[in-house]
Amino acid sequence: MRRLTKKRALTLVKELDAFPKVPESYVESTASGGTVSLIAFTLMAVLAFLEFFVYRNTWMRYEYEVDKDFSSKLRINVDITVAMRCQYIGADVLDLAETMVASDGLKYEPVNFELSPEQRLWHITLLHIQERLRVEHALQDLLFKTAMKGPPPAQHQREDGPSSLRACRIHGHMYVNKVAGNFHVTVGKSIPHPRGHAHLAALVSHDTYNFSHRIDHLSFGEVIPGLINPLDGTEKVSAESNHMFQYFITIVPTKLNTYKVSAETNQYSVTEQERVINHAAGSHGVSGIFMKYDISSLMVKVTEQHMPLWQFLVRLCGIIGGIFSTTGMLHGMVGFLIDVFCCRFQMGIYRHVKTAPLNEDDTSKTLIPTENAAQ
Q: What residues does the Endoplasmic reticulum vesicle transporter N-terminal domain cover (predicted)?
């Protein structure tokens, strides 16, 4: 009974076979079929190879949500060089609540405003990258992927004599309230004041004013080497002593999560304006560099994503099965058309031979046996 049950089960399984085997005696191999198979296998290999590169590639996904973090501090990272001596200028932050933030985290370093040939080459390269970023927005995704978390690269010291140190490099970081504010560099050191703050500018001669500057780096939040900010590499040279430079910055909180780095930082967009201070002509104001920033209420989440393995296998099976089925169908259709053409061609030749008139020699040759038969 058990043997009969096994035989019935095996018979039932054989009847469900959707891939019946054809005996080899019924299979005919042709040169055209081998050529089509070779082309199909080559095409499968090429497309599978390209699909593997697509599987290895990643892309950035952008999501937007409301920023609910309003109690934390905002870090400002500054590296700016001003064409004035360090004792003549001061930098600080005044936020929207009229709170002056101490600039203890900033360092004043006497330097030469002119760059060395190597530094000038790097500066020109950075400006070219900034131009391409304005045109090719996809380059920002590449910067996100290649960003590395760690200390920023060390800057080269400028080998200048003491007499040539006529500029001041202000660099470092500050922590401010997460509200709109104004970071500025102007004449005189800042001092606290009951109504805000003030700068001791009365002791500085107007002949020494020169707010030509170069912004090597300006960012908000955690410093991520490899990311280029909109103001990095900006250089402004003024021929007038009383000049006001204004930068209006909109900060967008950003959560970056890639396979190399996971950090909370900020991106920003900027518009700029500059004008000469001339009270006689009605252009009032204070000479200096003013960076007025505001913080967006939306947060951007940037996540690096990768194609799942199951999706890669499904796409690979689709490529192989699709090419195999398509080439088999095309080969069958081409073979059928060739057979039909050859058959019609042979029938045309047969009809032409059958309906062609006989000449006199052929008629005499066919009549002689008939006369002999009559005798």
A: 13-98
Q: Tell me: the pLDDT tens digits for 23-39?
A: 766 666 667 677 777 88
Q: How far apart are CA 212 and CA 81, in angstroms?
A: 9
DSSP secondary structure letter of residue 233: T
CA angle centred on 184, ends 183 and 188, rounded to 5°: 140
Beta bridge partners of 268: 251
Sign of the Cα pseudo-torsion (50, 51, 57, 63, in order): positive
* Percent of the chain whose predicted confidence (pLDDT) is above 90: 21
Q: What is the pTM of this model?
A: 0.70
Residue 291 · residue 218 · CB < 8 Å: yes
Among 218, 29, 205, which Cα is nearest to 106's?
218
Higher-pLDDT residue of 53 and 96 is 53
**What's the CA gap between 74 and 222, in Å, rounded?**
9
Give the DSSP letter string of 175-230. Answer: EEESS-EEEEEEES-EEEETTEEEE--TTS-GGG----EEEEEEEEBS--TT---T
In sequence order, what are the residues at sequence separation of 6 or more whose Cβ sits closer than 8 angstroms to the Cβ of residue 330?
Answer: 36
Res 27: pLDDT: 64
Say how many residues make up the chain. Answer: 375
**Which whole-number Å values give the CA distances from 352 to 15, 265, 360, in the listed order?**
52, 87, 19
**Distance (Å, rounded) from C-alpha 22 to C-alpha 192?**
96
Q: Which helix (H) or strand (E) holds 13?
A: helix 2-15
DSSP conformational letter for 279 = G
pLDDT digits (tens, 9 = 90+) for 84-124: 988 888 888 888 876 667 677 889 999 988 888 888 898 89
**Residues whose CB falls within 8 Å of the CB of residue 236, separated by 6 or more in sequence, listed in order:** 211, 212, 213, 214, 245, 274
